[in-house]
Amino acid sequence: MVVCAKCKKVLPAGAKACRSCGEPYHSVVKNKDLLKPKMSLEDVVQKTNLEVARAKMPVKTILLFSLLALLAVAVIFVAKSALVIFDGSGEEYREKVFYDPVFGLMWAKAKSEPMLYEDAERYCKDLRIGKMNDWRLPTITELRSLVKGCPATAVKGKCTVHDVCYMPECRKEECAGCEEGKGAGEENLYWQPMIWEHTKGWSKGFYWSATERKEMIDSPDAGKDRMAWTVSFLTGGIEGKDLEMWGHARCVSGPAPVTDRLKQYFIFMK
Asked: Is the domain defined by 98-215+223-256 classed in CATH 3.10.100?
């Protein structure tokens, strides 16, 4: 191979001078080692692996800082969203609302006078706490989530009355609840203590659910007296009551979507 001594370009065979720079033929050099690689393939692979290994630590560091930055942005977004949605620091909501993070439900702590079923529905519908106006009567399953200390009638208890089993036949012996006045709540009620407002002496009353107790279509009692399932927190018992009887209302809102649970946590945490 013939190479120009000046510009180092390869000359075609028989050339008298370099076509690029005009250098005469006598200045060319013959060098077989010009195209010989300076490193073997094994050396190149080894050097590349070493450089990649050295680069692992910076990459991990960059990923860590990126993750922390994203987390900080998420926290700021959630906190600001909470302030915008609930119009303030959340103190009013923590004072008047109990948040259940397991079911994503928000419960109004306020007590209610004894009332008929339709009045209880209207009471919850008209309830306003801050900007929250989507209150309603709870289903029997949701109302059972408030039972504390009586395993048989808690949500996963042996009592089979729930949202999809609401006929009289669904009420088994376990639905009667536990021993009267042995709960851990105020006045020994079977609900979480230090949360609910209630009038002393009304503890023997019951609370309405939105789940009506319905007879089978072919039952002779079908279409007669309308009844709804209720919970007595004195015993934790579940029983159907005539809609013309006087009971209490514990209003609920939600459940909040899973994607909003973090927001709810920021709002209601102390």
From this structure: yes
